[in-house]
Design goal:
This protein is of the alpha+beta class and 103 residues long. Helix content is 49%, strand content 15%. The strands form two sheets. Strands 1-2 form a two-stranded antiparallel sheet.
Amino acid sequence: MTSSRRVSIKAWVVALVCVLAFAGCALAGVSPEQQFHAIVASEVYRSAQPSADEIRAYRNKYHIATIINLRCETPGQPWYDAEVAGVSRLVIPYILGTDRRRW
């Protein structure tokens, strides 16, 4: 299996798990802070909607290399602007899952 195909499969797995986790979190009323887990230890993680500080902590602890946002781009929303600013300061690639050109 080629490296790019392996990355593509991982990205789709992460996307699917994130969607399911977010839906489950919303239905269960569980706070997002409790929703960070390894899918494949030391390789792929999923999370609900972490704050900029949580992203920094996850990056430092788990060496997060890329973030895939499965929600729509919503500039002007406080959570979105804070997330984009936080990721930008940390110099972590930020991919919108709805931007099909990146997949």
